[in-house]
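Cross-check.
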Amino acid sequence: MAEFQLNGVTLVIPDDLMTDQLTRAMTSGKYESSEADALLRHLRPRDRFLDLGAGAGYLSSLAGAAIRARRVTGVEAGPEMARVAQANLQRNGIEGGVIHWGAVVPDSYREAEITFTVRRSFWASTLTPPEGAKNTRAVVVPALRFGAVLAQADPTVLSIDIEGGEQDLFDTILPADLRLIIMELHPAVYGKQGTKRIFDALSAQGFAYCPQGSKAGTVVFERLPPEV
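Predicted model, tokenized:
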């Protein structure tokens, strides 16, 4: 088992799920570093945190150290990584936190399951694999509709890193209590038009780009106060 320490969080990951690239990112502290920096900058003690694309459970564990554990929910589509993330929550004392196994899909998706592509580097696993991608395997996972996930977790802070799947989510009406979104964009998947679609959809629901914590492909959106 590989063990790493990041921002006071202990992550243990089976050796067969690691790659040299992942090991370098973990040991250098670069693994999900921009998302972690944004989260630590903005998280408040009474927040409720939802993490889409939980990976190894790092952001969920980091959030759980700052807020009550029962207010932490993660979703991870990779079957092995969902188990790893849940174990890492418990390892870090986030006993009330929960990781759900499945892929988050738009509310318009009608099937109960969906095919998810697991890649050798787990952080690149995706619903939309690039053409010719190597070292992949297809698994069928539960399809979790975005609206239902939001209703169950009732987040005030939402983190999204789902390798391109984010572009189709924001037709869903976001909860009134949701005040902050931390998202990794994937323009290589959906291009400039897809990026514009995300910004436009969030703007229509009262969210604006927040430079504090945004860095490169990691973007922070905050809900604006209502106009008077």
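The radius of gyration is 16 Å. The chain has a mean pLDDT of 95. Passed to J.P. for a second look.
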